[in-house]
Specification:
The structure is a single chain. By secondary structure, the chain is of the alpha/beta class. The protein is built from 24 helices and 12 strands. The strands form 2 sheets. A 9-stranded mixed sheet has the order 4-3-5-2-6-1-7-8-9, sandwiched between helices. Strand 8, helix 8 and strand 9 form a beta-alpha-beta unit.
Length: 695
C-alpha cells in the first residue's frame, strides 16, 4: 500500500513543472491527493512535521518563516536504492547514512546534513519569494529518503494577523489566499493543527477547515502542546481528544513535541518520542495508543492511501482531459517542416476562412456576439438606413429660402409656373444631405472588414500571432486592398448622387407616382397651385355620361350620379387622370395663362422638392448597400487570395525572406516549450497512474 503514496509523490514531481499554475490553472484540471498542513505560527506546526520526519530541518525564526508551499515527500528506501545512491556519489557503505534528501530544483544532488537542508530551503525561499518576507505560490519539493514510512504532505505558511518587520501590510490576506487555494481542493486532506491550551472555537486552522470542509469529511485535527495545560483541565482536553468538541471525521490526534528548551538543547527526536509516550501513558492511559506522533503517522498513511484509491478514477479522467487539451494546443504551436508549403497553405486558409466568416459559413458560430457578414449587415440596417431615413427632406429649407431661390433664379424675368432652374438649385442643396451618410457607411464597412480579420478561425489567428512580421504584412495587404476599393466606391457613390443633383427629370413616371402616393394635402396644393380644372368627364363623347369633380380623396358627384357598377374601375380611372394632369403640369404642357402669387409658387416648389427628395432617397438607399456589397465586399473577396499570394509569398520567395517572415515571437517559443513540458508531465503521470489500478 505504501507504493500508492510513492506514486502520488511521482505525480507531484511531474506536476511541479507547472510552477505558478500549480495553484491556479492546474488544480482546476488535475486535483492531486495530498495532505495540506494548516496552522498558526505559534501552533507547533513545524514541530509536528519534524517529528513525523524524525529530523530537525525546517527554518525557524520570528514572523512568517515558511513563505513557499513546501512539498515534503517521505520515501522509505530499500537496500538496493540506498546502495545505488552510495555508488553514484562514490560513498563507501556506512551505517551512519540512514537518511538523505533531494530537492527537485537541484536534481542529482544529495544532502546528508539536515542543517544544509534547512539552509537550502531558506535560500530557495528567498529565490522564489524575495527577501522582503513576502510569500510565493511556487512550490519547493524535497524528497526525504528514510527508513521510516512513505508519506507526503504540503507545509503552508503559518496563519498570521499582523505584519511584522518588513512584511507586506496584506501578508495575512496573502497567506489566507494561499492556504485556501490548497485546502479548497476536493482531493486535499486538511491537517488542522490546533493547540490544547486554546479554545478550539477560536482556532484559525479549524475555522478554515470548517469553511472549506463543513462536514469534516476530509479534515484531521492535530492537538499540540498537551504538556502545557493545567492539571485541572485534563478532562476537558480528554473530551477534546475524544472528538466531543471538534466535529471532524478523519480523527483527532494529540501529540507532544519538543519544547523551545528541547530545541535549544538539541534534544533528539527519538528521545522526544520516548518522552511523549510516557506522558500519554501517565495522563491519558485509556486513550494513549490512539495518540502521539507514531499514531499520527499511521493515521495519515491510512487516510492518504484510502483517499488515493477513492479519487483515482476521477483523477485519471482529469489527466486524460488535460492530455487532450495540451495535445491540441501543441498542434497549433508546432514548427512547420516545409516552410514554403506551410506559408502557401496558411495564406490560402486565411483567405478561405475570411470569406467563410463574411458569408456566414464558419465552423464555430458565435453565440455571444454578431460577427462577420452579419456585422456588416447590421451596420447597413441599424446605422446607415436609420440615418438616411431620418433625414428631413426640407432640412434647413424655409419658405423664405425657397422664395429667394425662385426670385434669384428668375433674374429680371418673372418666375415661370415651374421654375426648373430654381427646383434644381433647391434639390441640389437638399440631396447633398444624402452624400455624407453614404460615404460614412463605406468607412464603417471598411473598418468592420478589417475587424472581421480578427474573427476568422482562432487557430489561424494564433498562428499569425506566432509570426509578428507575417501578421503585420497580412494586415497591410488587407488595408491596402480595402483602401483601393474604398476610394473607388466613395467616388462612384458621390458621383452617383451628384448626377441626381445636376440632372432633374420631373417627368419621370416614378417621381409622378411619388406625388400620387404623397398625402392629399401635398397633392391638392400642387394641383391648386397649377389651377388645373378638377372636373373630368368619364367619357367626353358620351352626352349622357356624368361629369365628376374630384379631389385627391374620394370622387364627389357634381350632379346626380348614375350608379357605378365597379368602384375599383372608377378609382383606377381617377388615378390615371391624376397622372395625366401631373404629367401635363410637370412637362410644361400647361397652357393656362394664370399669374401665380409668390406664396402659391413657393408651396408648389416646396412640395415638389419634398416628393423629389423622397424619390431620390429610395434610389440611393437601395443603391448604396448594393454597391458596397458588389464593389467593396465581393470584389475584395475575389482578389484576396491572389493579392496575399503576390504581395506576401511571391515577394518573400523572390527576396529569399521566407525564414525571416516565419521568425517566431519569443513568447510563442516559450509557450511551445512550456506546453511540451506539461504534456510530457501528464504522459508520465498517466504512466504512473497505471500502477495504481492494481492496488
Amino acid at each position: 500500500m505504501d507504493s500508492l503514496i510513492r506514486i502520488v509523490n511521482k505525480l507531484q514531481d511531474v506536476f511541479s513543472v507547472f510552477g505558478e499554475q500549480q495553484l491556479t490553472d492546474l488544480p482546476q484540471i488535475v486535483n492531486l491527493p495530498q495532505i495540506v498542513v494548516v496552522g498558526t505560527q505559534s501552533s507547533g506546526k513545524s514541530s509536528v512535521l519534524e517529528s513525523l520526519v524524525g529530523k530537525s530541518f525546517l527554518p525557524r525564526g520570528t514572523g512568517v518563516v515558511t513563505r513557499a508551499p513546501l512539498v515534503i515527500q517521505m520515501i522509505r528506501y530499500t537496500a538496493e536504492t540506498r546502495n545505488c545512491m552510495l555508488k553514484s556519489n562514490n560513498i563507501k557503505d556506512s551505517e551512519n547514512i540512514t537518511e538523505w534528501v533531494e530537492f527537485l530544483h537541484k536534481p542529482n544532488l544529495f544532502y546528508f546534513d539536515f542543517d544544509m537542508v534547512r539552509n537550502e530551503i531558506e535560500c530557495e525561499t528567498n529565490n522564489l519569494a524575495g527577501n522582503n518576507k513576502g510569500i510565493t505560490n511556487n512550490q519547493i519539493v524535497l524528497r526525504i529518503h528514510t527508513n521510516r514510512y512513505d508519506l507526503t504532505f504540503v507545509d503552508l505558511p503559518g496563519i498570521t494577523k499582523v505584519a511584522v518587520g518588513d512584511q507586506p501590510d496584506d501578508i495575512d490576506e496573502q497567506i489566507q489566499k494561499l492556504i485556501i487555494s490548497y485546502a479548497k481542493q476536493s482531493n486535499s486532506i486538511i491537517l488542522a493543527v490546533v493547540t490544547a491550551n486554546t479554545d478550539p472555537s477560536t482556532s484559525e486552522s479549524l475555522q478554515i477547515a470548517k469553511k472549506l470542509d463543513p462536514e469534516g469529511m476530509r479534515t484531521i485535527a492535530v492537538v499540540t502542546k498537551l504538556d502545557l495545560i493545567d492539571d485541572g483541565t485534563l478532562q476537558d482536553t480528554k473530551d477534546l481528544l475524544c472528538g466531543h468538541r471538534i466535529p471532524v471525521k478523519l480523527g483527532i490526534i494529540g501529540v507532544v513535541n519538543r519544547s523551545q528548551k528541547d530545541i535549544v538543547e538539541n534534544k533528539s527526536m527519538d528521545a522526544t518520542l520516548v518522552s511523549e509516550t510516557e506522558f500519554l501513558k501517565t495522563n491519558y492511559p485509556d486513550i494513549c495508543t490512539k495518540h502521539g506522533n507514531k499514531a499520527l503517522a499511521h493515521t495519515l498513511q491510512m487516510v492518504l492511501i484510502t483517499h488515493i484509491k477513492k479519487v483515482y478514477p476521477k483523477l485519471k479522467i482529469e489527466l486524460e482531459e488535460m492530455k487532450h487539451k495540451l495535445g491540441k494546443k501543441l498542434l497549433v504551436l508546432h514548427t512547420p517542416d516545409n516552410k514554403i508549403s506551410f506559408l502557401i497553405g496558411l495564406l490560402k486558409d486565411i483567405s478561405r476562412s475570411y470569406e467563410d466568416t463574411i458569408n456566414g459559413n464558419q465552423n464555430d458560430v458565435s453565440v455571444d456576439k454578431i460577427i462577420g457578414g452579419a456585422s456588416i449587415a447590421r451596420i447597413i440596417q441599424q446605422k446607415y438606413l436609420k440615418t438616411i431615413n431620418a433625414i428631413d427632406p426640407l432640412q434647413d429649407l424655409s419658405n423664405e429660402n425657397i422664395a429667394k431661390v425662385l426670385l434669384n433664379t428668375s433674374g429680371t424675368n418673372q418666375s415661370t409656373f415651374v421654375n426648373e432652374k430654381a427646383l434644381q438649385k433647391i434639390l441640389s442643396r437638399q440631396l447633398n444631405n444624402l452624400i455624407e451618410p453614404s460615404l460614412d457607411c463605406v468607412e464603417l464597412v471598411r473598418s468592420e472588414m478589417l475587424n472581421i480579420l480578427n474573427s476568422i478561425d482562432v487557430r489561424l489567428l494564433d498562428t499569425l500571432r506566432r509570426y509578428p512580421q507575417l501578421n503585420e504584412d497580412v494586415q497591410k495587404v488587407f488595408e491596402k486592398l480595402l483602401e483601393e476599393n474604398v476610394n473607388n466606391i466613395k467616388e462612384f457613390i458621390a458621383s452617383y448622387i451628384e448626377s441626381y443633383q445636376e440632372c432633374l427629370n420631373t417627368a419621370n413616371p416614378d417621381f409622378i407616382l411619388e406625388i400620387v402616393k404623397s398625402n392629399n394635402t401635398i397633392q391638392e396644393e400642387i394641383l391648386a397651385a397649377a389651377n388645373i380644372s378638377n372636373c373630368v368627364n368619364e367619357d367626353p363623347t358620351d352626352n349622357h355620361s356624368t361629369q365628376h369633380c374630384f379631389t385627391f380623396g374620394k370622387p364627389i358627384p357634381q350632379a346626380i350620379a348614375q350608379p357605378i357598377p365597379d368602384k375599383m374601375a372608377q378609382l383606377k380611372k381617377i388615378e390615371i387622370n391624376r397622372i395625366q394632369m401631373l404629367n401635363q403640369l410637370l412637362s410644361g404642357l400647361n397652357n393656362q395663362e394664370v399669374t401665380l402669387e409668390s406664396s402659391e409658387q413657393v408651396k408648389l416648389h416646396r412640395d415638389l422638392s419634398l416628393c423629389y427628395f423622397e424619390y431620390i432617397r429610395k434610389i440611393v438607399r437601395d443603391f448604396v448597400p448594393k454597391r458596397i456589397k458588389h464593389k467593396m465586399i465581393n470584389s475584395f473577396l475575389k482578389v484576396l487570395d491572389k493579392r496575399l499570394n503576390e504581395e506576401i509569398f511571391q515577394t518573400y520567395l523572390i527576396e529569399k525572406k521566407i525564414d525571416e517572415v516565419l521568425l517566431e515571437d519569443e513568447t510563442f517559443t516559450k509557450d511551445r516549450n512550456n506546453v511540451e513540458t506539461k504534456l510530457d508531465a501528464v504522459r508520465k503521470a498517466l504512466k504512473n497512474m497505471v500502477d495504481i489500478q492494481y492496488f
